[in-house]
Amino acid sequence: MRNRVRLIPLGAAAVLFSIAPVLAQSPPVIAIRNARIVPVSGPAIEKGTVVMRNGLIADVGTEAAVPADAWVLDGTGLTVYPGLVEAMGSVGIPETMPAPGMGARGAMPGTMPSAMPGALPAAPPARGPEDRPLTNSWTRAADLVRPNERRIEALRNQGYTSAAAFPSAGIFTGQGAVINLSGESGGRMVVENGIGQFITMSRGGFTAFPGSLMGTIAYVRQVFLDANHYRTAKETYARAPQGLERPAYDRALEGILESKRFLIPAVNAVEIDRMLRFAAELKVSPVLYGLHEGYKAVDKISKAGVPVLISTKWPEPPRDRDPDEVDSMRDLELRENAPSTPAALAKAGVKFAFYSDGAESPSRNVRRAIQKGLSPEQALRAMTIAPAEIFGVADRLGSIEKGKIANLVVTKGDLFADRPQVQYVFVDGVRYEAPPPAMPAKPEMTQ
Amino acid sequence: MTSLILFAALLAQTVVIQNANVLPVTKPGFKGSVVIENGKIKEMGEKVVVPGNAQVVDAGGQYLMPGIIDAHSHIAADAINEGSVSVSSMVGIEDVLNPTQISIYRGLAGGVTSSNILHGSANAIGGKCTLIKMRWGKDASEMVFEGAKPSIKFALGENPKRRGSSGSGPLQGSPGNLRYPATRMGVEDVIRQAFNDAKIYQAKWKEYEARKAKGETIIPPRRDLKLEPLVEVLEGKRQVHAHCYRADEILMLLRVADDYGFKIRTLQHVLEGYKVAKEIAAHGAGASTFSDWWAYKIEAYDAIPFNAAVMMRKGVLTSINSDSADVTRRLNTEAAKTVKYGGLTETEALSLITINPAKQLEVEARVGSIEPGKDADLVLYNQHPLSSYAVAQKVWVDGDLYFDRQKDIEERSRKEAAKKVMLDRQREQQKKNAPMPGAGMRRPA
């Protein structure tokens, strides 16, 4: 799917594809007709029309009229879904980008090119929370995304049109953005800026604080205390600055105070329990991510009313290991049951979305959740409207509805079929054509 | 409705352990029964009234003693050392408790019902510790010994004076990468400096409260998670458990504590405690030591197996701990060694792993002996617990049976079978997913 394809109007129904790799202005009006449409917001339409105008969905339904100025695509035998939304990841943010903004001191152990000639002398290792180690809370994915980032195309080829992208370096990595997986510039890609602060449980190693999970948790707690104190101090000062000490500006805390919600890692049941309690203590609006052992913590998640992002990169036995090695019961159970987490959470009414976590074949992984009892409708929601709702962009993304952004994926056959064939992807109404089916290499072999 | 009835039944659960050789530790032993009601010991004696709804356990003449309390352990947590800094009082074990660690069950199978989970000894002032009950199968927060006094770990000597490595990280090869202190002098300095800071911090808050009370508009001080626990130590609200070996450093710490007006609750390891037992007793510190481990490092060379007995005889509140997921399974044997080395009575030996650690941790009103009103934390041994042949058969925590050797043995074959089914299925699956031989595997010529 290297080239955008120019559509040429030809009569009413036929379409010609230009093979020229020329990037042209996308036609302002496109209609897909005679297609099966799965709008997610309502029941499937067996034979209908979707009209896109200026990057938005202009009309959808059995009765939707094909405008006279439309470029028309015959959708016979095709199914139109809302474009898939990657609920979490760093797609769009170039991986080689230097870590933006170090913490006050020793922020990024290991990333300082101390041997580089002319480089600034490296900061000493962080000696406590006041050094703001591994903190980049003020950075914004919206400032970092680039349309030519290499992972965009691969994900789009799988039917994804949007992603919740987050910077990935540090403990407080920065604020995410919902982006469209296409655009002339980084700025054009951004659908929503500031969708939440991404937290990891990274450590600084034995010589730099925090050097343990305990240290990271204590650090996060201290930063939240500091942020609340900073807000109080600023408010008190703003009311009557005379006679009061001026609070020092702190970009790390500004980044925290600006964050709408916090993404917190929790893969196994112990972590889920730990982080739900921690989020309640911090009085923040959390979104947990990971959740492989979520099937063991359904009641807790449901009681907390917290939305979760499930990694569909299910645990697998390590490769190339001693064939005689016998797994622990716990590992076996986790591998067996992790894909049943979505069905269990769906049954309990928990809001959840999927992220592919860098897996080669997201749809194959989602199928495993379906085999474990998740309905295909629920699976589709977890890849469309649910992430849009979690990040507050459901008024623009996640379903095929009049007025929403024209992000669509068009497949031959069902999206969750054994070999789904993505034919076209539309992002902001711009059409991408699927590449010819690759050699049927096993996904395991391609990593 | 059903659940309500069940709940009521649980609440009213009464267990009578009959025909046991009871070793209450704080009272003379006897042959008779112990009645458990609502998780507490209700009654004990040669003859007791057996309530009509009671579940009766015939001990068949086996030995019933209070659940063992391990005063120094590092199990059940996903992190132990925050070694990056010399004062890591901002961190705490409670944040990282992992109730699924198998060491908990193994400890339970060795008769342990409470365990003090300490931060490691990488730094002069370490992190906050957490006393747990071995409620295997419960959540992290349910493991915590409710109402136990908070505590913190200190450490002296070789571990905290390790300076770290200059070999990695951003300052590779630079002394800037190294951690202070590098000597025992420095360890003392770090502790003194931390308490100086804590006193200033304490004063800052007191001033704030006073000015706020007068109605002034004032920005409150920043809360500092590193200094808060140290203020609690100064105010007697948090216990100090101090890792130490040598007599000189023990005296140093006691002097520092006296200077700043706080108490060391226990000295841990304290292998040279026998040399300064009177001074330790005068300070009011307890001592929690090993039975007979030594010479695993220089500062552990001058240890003697009589240490526990000598300290006890000199009036130090003494316990024996494991500091090990392995040894915690046979602390009864560790205690038994003090009968050979030091001539403690059997009851005194048992007190080293029951009522004494309970007193050190200030939970003796709840656990540490078999007495009416205390938590029903009990262990039934097939032999006298100080015998080398003693094996724990049943262990109760809060009156609930958490370990039953018979049941464990019976379940093994079922678990094995279930595991085999899963293993075979996953191997089959893997084979199916594996690429055809040769497909996509062509190597470049």
Describe what you observe in this structure.
- The complex is a heterodimer of chains A (447) and B (445).
- With 447 residues, chain A is α/β, with parallel strands linked by helices.
- Chain A is 25% helix and 24% strand.
- Chain A has helices at 141-144, 150-157, 186-189, 213-239, 251-257, 269-282, 298-304, 329-337, 341-347, 362-371, 376-382, 385-390, and strands at residues 7-10, 14-17, 29-37, 45-53, 56-61, 71-74, 78-82, 84-89, 160-165, 172-180, 190-199, 262-266, 286-290, 308-311, 352-355, 408-412, 421-427, 430-433.
- In chain A, strand 3 (29-37) and strand 4 (45-53) form a beta hairpin.
- In chain A, helix 4 (213-239) crosses helix 5.
- Residues 1-24, 99-119 and 440-447 of chain A have low confidence and may be disordered.
- Chain B is 31% helix and 20% strand.
- Chain B has twelve helices and 16 strands.
- In chain B, the strands form two sheets. In chain B, strands 1, 2, 3, 4, 5, 14, 15 and 16 form an eight-stranded mixed β-sheet that branches. In chain B, strands 6-7-8-9-10-11-12-13 form an eight-stranded mixed β-sheet.
- In chain B, strand 6, helix 2 and strand 7 form a beta-alpha-beta unit.
- The longest helix of chain B is centred in the middle third of the chain and has 30 residues, at 184-213.
- At the A-B interface, helix 4, helix 6 and helix 8 of A face helix 12 of B.
Question: Which terms would index this structure?
Answer:
heterodimer, A: alpha/beta, 8-stranded mixed β-sheet, 18 strands, B: 445 residues, alpha/beta, 12 helices, 16 strands, globular
Percent helix of chain A: 10-25%
Structural class of chain A: alpha/beta
Query: Secondary-structure element order of chain A, as H and E?
Result: EEEEEEEEHHEEHEHHEHEHEHHEHHHEEE
Strand count, sense and closure of the main sheet of chain B? 8 strands, mixed
Rounded radius of gyration of chain B (Å):
25 Å
User: What's the total number of strands of chain B?
Assistant: 16
Could you tell me the strand content of chain B as a percent range? Answer: 15-25%
